[in-house]
């Protein structure tokens, strides 16, 4: 496998080029999603920033407009922990837009100390990080298929490397551990990205699917996780900024050199920081049998059919 497919060894958002004429959806109004929205709207795209908190979304739009007064950007409400909200969002987008060039499945929750569930009774991290984005992509698939060279970028994590899909207790009802739940959700995200690539080819959907992870990033996501004091004292100040963490997503979303089925993350210190490059997924992310089983189970859980 050629790890240096990209001709640029130090890709940054400045290498992105014009995105004028493109319609882009980004889930998550803070952190990485917000930073990606700044760069993509600044590059001329029409950006739909999707999140569950309308007040936070409005503030994000206001701040981006202060940076780029002519930015074409809007907020739309989307709760990834609610299948009805996801379906309604998909219907609204399809009625309002005739193309969707890029979908960035970015939003997430991290290592909630106590087991919580979504509106549809999924374990919160699996339900939000993975199943919500799985359902969202399915509901937007007709629009993605209509758009030439459409891309789906799904954000995983370094934590996928310690992840396992617990088919015998997928919602971790019997034995909940916050880090096990998070790593499972992020492994599922990457497996989804790779499986979507395979199925797009097999079904001739014409959609590129790319997985990414941001490395270690100092975002509000950590506020929900255990060991906050430990992060604050020893780790938090050494991490990448959200704008640096967003680079892998921006590269995957826009670079003409990126190929469907690739996985991108930081290039230094066991992928914690550095300019993004093509990297190898963990071995378990490449298990075709598990990926197929997870896909079929997910379709049943969220009541969608990719077609």
List keywords for this structure.
307 residues; alpha/beta; eight-stranded mixed sheet; 9 helices
How would you describe the overall organization of this protein?
With 307 residues, this protein is α/β, with parallel strands linked by helices. 40% of the residues lie in helices and 14% in strands. It has 9 helices and 8 strands. It has helices at residues 31-42, 54-67, 83-96, 124-146, 178-203, 228-235, 242-245, 247-254, 288-302, and strands spanning 23-27, 46-51, 72-77, 102-105, 151-155, 208-212, 263-268, 273-278. An 8-stranded mixed beta sheet has the order 3-2-1-4-5-6-7-8, with helices on both faces. Strand 7 (263-268) and strand 8 (273-278) form a beta hairpin. Helix 3 packs parallel to helix 4 (124-146). Mean pLDDT is 91; it is low at 1-8 and 222-234.
Short overview:
With 307 residues, this protein is an alpha/beta fold. The protein is 40% helix and 14% strand.
Task: Round the Cα radius of gyration to an integer and report it.
Answer: 18 Å
- The number of strands is 8
The backbone outline, from C-alpha atoms, is globular
In N-to-C order, the SSE pattern is: EHEHEHEHEHEHHHEEH
The mean pLDDT is 91
Strand content: 5-15%
Low-pLDDT stretches are: 1-8, 222-234
Provide the helix percentage: 40-55%
Strand line-up in the sheet with most strands: 3-2-1-4-5-6-7-8
Main sheet: strands, sense, barrel? 8 strands, mixed
The class by helix and strand makeup works out as alpha/beta
Helical segment count: 9
C-alpha end-to-end distance: 31 Å
């Amino acid at each position: 496998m050629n790890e240096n497919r990209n001709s640029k060894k130090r890709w940054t958002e400045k290498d992105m080029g014009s995105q004028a004429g493109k319609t882009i959806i980004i889930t998550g109004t803070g952190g990485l999603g917000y930073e990606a929205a700044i760069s993509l709207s600044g590059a001329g795209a029409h950006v739909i920033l999707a999140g569950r908190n309308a007040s936070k979304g409005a503030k994000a739009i206001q701040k981006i407009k202060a940076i780029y007064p002519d930015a074409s950007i809007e907020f739309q409400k989307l709760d990834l922990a609610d299948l009805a909200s996801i379906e309604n969002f998909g219907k609204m987008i399809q009625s309002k837009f005739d193309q969707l060039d890029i979908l960035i499945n970015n939003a997430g929750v991290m290592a909630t100390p106590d087991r919580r569930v979504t509106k549809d009774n999924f374990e919160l991290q699996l339900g939000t990080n993975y199943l919500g984005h799985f359902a969202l992509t399915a509901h937007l698939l007709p629009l993605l298929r209509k758009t030439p060279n459409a891309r789906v970028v799904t954000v995983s994590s370094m934590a996928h490397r310690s992840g396992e899909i617990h088919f015998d207790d997928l919602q971790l009802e019997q034995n909940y551990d916050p880090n096990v739940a998070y790593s499972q959700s992020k492994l599922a995200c990457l497996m989804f990205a790779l499986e979507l690539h395979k199925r797009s080819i097999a079904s001739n959907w014409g959609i590129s699917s790319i997985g990414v992870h941001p490395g270690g990033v100092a975002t509000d996501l950590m506020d929900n996780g255990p060991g906050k004091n430990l992060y604050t004292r020893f780790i938090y100040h050494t991490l990448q900024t959200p704008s640096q963490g967003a680079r892998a997503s921006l590269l995957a979303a826009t670079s003409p050199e990126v190929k469907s089925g690739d996985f991108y993350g930081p290039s230094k210190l066991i992928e914690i920081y550095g300019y993004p490059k093509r990297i190898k997924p963990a071995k378990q992310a490449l298990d075709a049998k598990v990926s197929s089983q997870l896909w079929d189970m997910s379709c049943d859980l969220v009541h969608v059919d990719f077609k």
